[in-house]
Amino acid sequence: MQADGKILVKATNTSTRPGQSNGDLVRLNTDGSLDPLFHPITNTTLVGVESLPDGRVLVAKPEANYARLNSDGTVDSTFSTVRLPGFHHVLADGRLINISLATNTATLARYNRDGSPDSTYPATTVTLAPLPAPASIQTTRRSRPP
């Protein structure tokens, strides 16, 4: 839900307007009607949608590519489309924290509001220690009373 009470809906092959197909991302007004001022995203698979504090929207595609939409659904050309594998978190000021995991490492990086890497926050990679093998568990079977 956005700050103004409107709802972003990630949909697949919906058609709520006769003769028109809606995109993979539409916005509903507070009364549940389609918002005609929002440009729906069509024919694109989205794996993530997140409202940002300033009314814009961060969208993620399966290839870990992120883009930002303006509040009307148009692509924000001031945002550098960025590839962020792993997990992200949007900070209150609109910057992104990204954690990407590999076999034995984790990398933490921060991105500015425009999608560029934050040079004041150096990316940090740590080596993850392997988990110890699970200890064997012995069970004792108790007989039931007759």
The proportion of residues forming helix, as a percent range, comes to: under 10%
On the 0 to 100 scale, the average pLDDT is 78
Beta fraction:
25-35%
Q: What is the number of helices?
A: 0
* Rg calc: 22 Å
Ends apart, CA distance between termini: 60 Å
Can you tell me the residue ranges where pLDDT is under 50 for at least 5 consecutive residues? Answer: none
Strand order in space, largest sheet: 3-4-5-6
Strand element count: 10
Query: What shape does the CA trace take?
Result: flat
Structural class given helices, strands, pairing? mainly beta
- What series of H and E elements makes up the topology? EEEEEEEEEE
User: What does the largest sheet look like?
Assistant: 4 strands, antiparallel
Structural summary, described in words:
With 146 residues, this protein is mainly β. It has strands at 7-10, 25-28, 48-51, 57-60, 65-69, 82-83, 87-90, 96-101, 105-111, 124-127. The strands form 3 sheets. It has a 4-stranded antiparallel β-sheet, with no helix packed on it. A 4-stranded antiparallel β-sheet has the order 7-8-9-10, with no helix packed on it. The chain has a two-stranded antiparallel ribbon with strand order 1-2. It starts with 6 loop residues before the first strand and ends in a 19-residue tail after the last strand. The model has no long low-confidence stretch (mean pLDDT 78).
